[in-house]
């Protein structure tokens, strides 16, 4: 009697639940963690783990539920190439639907539901993408799509999917070699493009510097030519001034009552003082006013000589002392 009473109580581990089936009343009830009474002889029980469980499918030896075989999911891509997917799924059971799961599926629900659903979703999703998207650029997008479709497929039966992650993507040996060769060629092409761009950039910088040097040289040459032109224009201006002066000292200023010798001398020799009009030297009849012409023979510019002296001969110097007019 004591033995029968002792076997009527069961200890349910933490995080577990015990499904109890009464064979007489044909009813089910759920025993939670802790001590639970189980009628002897007429009860059939099944323990379920309600904690988060891991289900791994991998081709690496020693990993996953089937550690001794290659458990990768091989699926064709959009081009028909085979790729192997290693993944891990975290899930747990809904306690409120545990009795229904026990009635409809049983304790081996991972093989019957989880594994079958994952294999189906993997093949469906992978077949919609090119192989290079599966391998690199859209891997996160593919993983999200697999998560979404797996949850929608199994949660209606009471299996809650926490997360599904793609651990690895593998190819056949032949295709792996082809991808490796393509990546090497792509990296080499990118390096060549980068080298070409750097070379062209340096060449452009060199041309800019060369153009700036030429522009500076042209500015220096133009400045020197402008200065030289100004030096050549000085004698021309002096010659024009002397020609104008010779024209102004023409016949109207030769001699006679119409002319003014003081004015002629003042124009020919600026700064020279003139005699008063009443002096003997100022009288028109006492002295003739010489006339002058401009000769450009001097290296310092044009010079004035008397019209009676040719430009090729120097003007004769006076033999006596130079008389300067009194102020």
Short description:
42% of the residues lie in helices and 21% in strands. The chain contains 7 helices and 11 strands.
Key descriptive features of the protein:
327 residues; Tetrahydropterin Synthase, Chain A; three-stranded antiparallel beta sheet; 11 strands; 42% helix
Distance between the terminal alpha carbons, to the nearest Å?
168 Å
Any idea of the CATH topology of one domain? Tetrahydropterin Synthase, Chain A
For CATH, the homologous superfamily of one domain is named as: Band 7 domain
Please, how many helices?
Answer: 7
Q: Could you list the spans in which at least 5 consecutive residues all have pLDDT below 50?
A: 252-259, 272-287
Q: Helix proportion of residues, in percent? A: 40-55%
Strand content: 15-25%
User: Structural class given helices, strands, pairing?
Assistant: alpha+beta
Average pLDDT, all residues: 78
One letter per element, helices H and strands E, the order comes to: HEEEEEEEEHHHHEHHEE
Describe this structure in words.
- The chain is of the alpha+beta class and 327 residues long.
- 42% of the residues lie in helices and 21% in strands.
- A hairpin with a 5-residue loop joins strand 7 and strand 8.
- The longest helix has 76 residues.
- This is Band 7 domain-containing protein.
- Keywords: Coiled coil.
- It holds the Pfam family Band_7.
